[in-house]
Design a protein that fits this description.
- The protein is mainly β.
- The protein has a single domain, classed as Beta Barrel (Porin).
- Helices cover 9% and strands 56% of the residues.
- It contains one helix and 13 strands, in the order H-E-E-E-E-E-E-E-E-E-E-E-E-E.
- The chain has one helix at residues 2-28, and strands spanning 80-89, 93-103, 106-116, 119-131, 134-155, 165-187, 200-218, 222-224, 233-236, 239-259, 265-280, 286-287, 289-305.
- The strands form two sheets. The chain has an eight-stranded antiparallel β-barrel with strand order 1-4-5-6-7-10-11-13. A two-stranded antiparallel sheet has the order 8-9.
- Strand 4 and strand 5 (134-155) form a beta hairpin.
- The termini are far apart.
- The model is unreliable at 16-29 (pLDDT under 50).
Length: 306
C-alpha cells in the first residue's frame, strides 16, 4: 500500500513537470544572442628586412648602378655683334663748278676746282644673325676732309668792251663732311661663346647707303679794282656750306680676332666701299658740282659679341 502510494505520487510529480513546469521554464528562457561575426584574421605582419649577406673575404664590392647621362646644354651662340671703328679714307675727291653772271654789261665767269683730300672718321654698327649666320647690319659712319682748290676768274673791264681781266686765287680753309647710314644684309659664320671657340670671326655685307654731304663752295668773291682798272686783284674767297642728300650702295667685309673667357670681345679690321652721286651748287647761276661721295674706307677697332 505504501509502495503503491509512492508510485502514484511519483507519477503525479512527473506529469506535473512534464505538462506545466517544463514549458513555462522553456517560455521564460531568454532568446539566444545573435551569433558574433567571424573574427578577421590578423593582418600579416610586415616582413622583416633581411640583412644582405656578408660577402666572402676577397670578393670585389659590386659597382653602383650607372646614372643616366645628363643632358648637355647647347653652348651660347653669338647672335649680336657690336662694331666700332676708326676709319681712314685714303682716296681723294675732286669736283669743280662754273658760274656765270652779268657784270658791266658783259659776262663774268668764275671756274673753281676743289680737291677733298684724305679723310678721317669713325663708324659704329650692330649686326644681328637671324638664320644660319645670315642677318642684318645697320650702322652710321662720319668722316671729314680738308679741301683745297683754286678759282680762275674772268671779269669784264668797267670802261672797255671785250677787254676782260683775269685773276686767280687759292681756296683754303674749306671743308667737306660726310655722314652715311648703312642698312645691309650680312653674313657671319656660327660662333659659340665658349672658351674653346675659335678666335677668328669674319663677316661679309652689302646694302643701301643714305648719304648726307656738306661741302664748302666758293660764295661771292670780293675784288680790288682801281683806276685805270687794268689790274684785277682778288681780295677774298669766302666759302659757303652746301648740304645735299643722296642714296647709294656699299659693300665690304670684316675680319676680327676674338678673346676673353667666352670670346665676348675682340679687335678687327674692316674694308668698305660705298658710293653715291651728289650734286652741289653754290648759286642758281652755278653749273652744279658732281661729287662721288663715299669711296674706300679702311677701319680698325673694337668688337663685342653677345
Amino acid at each position: 500500500m505504501n509502495r503503491a502510494a509512492a508510485r502514484v505520487a511519483l507519477a503525479a510529480v512527473v506529469a506535473l513537470f512534464g505538462l506545466g513546469v517544463v514549458p513555462v521554464a522553456l517560455a521564460q528562457t531568454p532568446p539566444k544572442p545573435p551569433a558574433a561575426p567571424p573574427a578577421k584574421p590578423p593582418a600579416t605582419p610586415p616582413a622583416t628586412p633581411t640583412k644582405p649577406a656578408t660577402p666572402a673575404p676577397g670578393t670585389p664590392a659590386p659597382k653602383p648602378a650607372a646614372k643616366p647621362p645628363a643632358k648637355r646644354k647647347k653652348p651660347a651662340v653669338t647672335r649680336f655683334r657690336l662694331v666700332a671703328n676708326f676709319n681712314a679714307m685714303p682716296s681723294s675727291l675732286n669736283y669743280d663748278d662754273v658760274r656765270t653772271s652779268t657784270v658791266y654789261a658783259e659776262t663774268q665767269t668764275i671756274s673753281t676746282s676743289d680737291e677733298a683730300g684724305t679723310g678721317l672718321g669713325g663708324d659704329g654698327a650692330l649686326q644681328v644673325s637671324l638664320y644660319s649666320g645670315l642677318g642684318l647690319l645697320a650702322g652710321y659712319s662720319y668722316g671729314t676732309r680738308d679741301v683745297s682748290g683754286t678759282a680762275d676768274i674772268t671779269r669784264p673791264h668797267p670802261l672797255y668792251l671785250n677787254r676782260p681781266r683775269t685773276a686767280s686765287a687759292e681756296l683754303s680753309g674749306y671743308g667737306y663732311t660726310e655722314g652715311a647710314f648703312d642698312v645691309d644684309v650680312a653674313y657671319s659664320p656660327r660662333a659659340p661663346r665658349t672658351p674653346k671657340a675659335r678666335h677668328l670671326d669674319w663677316a661679309l655685307f652689302a646694302g643701301v647707303t643714305f648719304f648726307k654731304v656738306e661741302a664748302d663752295l666758293l660764295d661771292v668773291p670780293t675784288f680790288d679794282e682801281r683806276y685805270p682798272y687794268d689790274q684785277l686783284t682778288v681780295l677774298s674767297t669766302p666759302g659757303r656750306p652746301i648740304k645735299e642728300n643722296a642714296t647709294g650702295w656699299n659693300v665690304g667685309g670684316r675680319l676680327d680676332y676674338r678673346f676673353g673667357k667666352s670670346k665676348s670681345f675682340g679687335v678687327g679690321l674692316q674694308l668698305r666701299y660705298s658710293t653715291a652721286s651728289v650734286e652741289l651748287g653754290a648759286t642758281d647761276a652755278t653749273t652744279k658740282s658732281t661729287i662721288d661721295a663715299g669711296g674706300l674706307s679702311v677701319g680698325a677697332g673694337l668688337r663685342a659679341y653677345f
